[in-house]
């Protein structure tokens, strides 16, 4: 359930509280705009992102699949301002169970579009894939810049936070992990 009028009310209160006039021409439609924006930015709360993995098809490929540089926009749950970055999602299918590549990007976005922590986001993506595809292993790397660290607070623009979640064979097998990392960082170093 998404309560647009309640957000409008709240945004109007924030505008008043910062000493603005919510009735001036430029701001009069702002509460409604912000409410609609939040509906979009937090749309992940209205879905179970794992559902994107319910369509599985069969392909005899038991080698690494990596979708890298999946753009993500999420909202830091501490300050409600964005963190922006990329996810790299890698898995090794088992018993020919693969998913559509776009579904991995949908999965990332489903978990990103909600108040989030980067660590939790990374873990949720990996666990969803383990759950639905039962692959030999999953490795997810997320790199992001947190605006709460750039535009306010410590004001450390350009700092990148990197998190990873490693499951199954990637945990046990150092060479699989190294191979995935090599492919993720290829062209970057
Ligand atoms: N671990 C983790 N921390 C985060 C994430 N996003 C924001 N933070 C941190 O959450 C912390 C919240 O710290 P608090 O001391 O409660 O809040 P604050 O006074 O606004 O902190 P400063 O940002 O240091 O000014 C900050 O250190 C943020 O950098 C995240 O995705 N993961
Ligand atoms: Zn923050």
TrEMBL record:
Its EC number is 3.5.4.16. It catalyses: GTP + H2O = 7,8-dihydroneopterin 3'-triphosphate + formate + H(+). InterPro entries: GTP-CH-I_C/QueF (IPR043133), GTP-CH-I_N (IPR043134), GTP_CycHdrlase_I (IPR001474), GTP_CycHdrlase_I_CS (IPR018234), GTP_CycHdrlase_I_dom (IPR020602). PROSITE patterns: GTP_CYCLOHYDROL_1_1, GTP_CYCLOHYDROL_1_2. Residues 7-184 form the GTP cyclohydrolase I domain. CDD domains: GTP_cyclohydro1 (cd00642). Keywords: GTP-binding, Hydrolase, Metal-binding, Nucleotide-binding, One-carbon metabolism, Zinc. One of its GO terms (molecular function) is zinc ion binding. One of its GO terms (biological process) is tetrahydrobiopterin biosynthetic process. Pathway: Cofactor biosynthesis; 7,8-dihydroneopterin triphosphate biosynthesis; 7,8-dihydroneopterin triphosphate from GTP: step 1/1. Zn(2+) binds at residues 76, 79, 148. GO terms for cellular component: cytoplasm. PANTHER family: GTP CYCLOHYDROLASE 1, GTP CYCLOHYDROLASE I. Homopolymer. Belongs to the GTP cyclohydrolase I family. This is GTP cyclohydrolase 1. It comes from Desulforamulus ferrireducens. The lineage of its organism: Bacteria, Bacillati, Bacillota, Clostridia, Eubacteriales. The gene is folE.
């Amino acid at each position: 359930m998404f309560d647009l009028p309640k957000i409008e009310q709240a945004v109007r209160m924030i505008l008043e509280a910062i000493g603005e006039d919510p009735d001036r021409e430029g701001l009069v439609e702002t509460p409604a705009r912000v409410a609609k924006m939040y509906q979009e930015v937090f749309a992940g709360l209205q879905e179970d992102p794992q559902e994107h993995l319910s369509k599985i098809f069969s392909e005899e490929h038991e080698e690494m699949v990596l979708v890298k540089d999946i753009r993500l926009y999420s909202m830091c749950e501490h300050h409600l301002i964005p963190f922006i970055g990329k996810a790299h999602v890698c898995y090794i299918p088992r018993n020919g169970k693969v998913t559509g590549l776009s579904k991995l990007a949908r999965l990332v976005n489903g978990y990103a579009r909600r108040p989030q922590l980067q660590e939790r986001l990374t873990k949720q993506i990996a666990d969803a894939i383990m759950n639905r595809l039962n692959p030999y292993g999953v490795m997810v790397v997320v790199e992001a810049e947190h605006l709460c660290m750039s535009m306010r607070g410590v004001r450390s623009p350009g700092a990148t936070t990197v998190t990873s979640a490693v499951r199954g064979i990637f945990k046990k097998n150092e060479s699989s992990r190294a191979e995935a990392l090599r492919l993720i960082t290829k062209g970057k170093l």
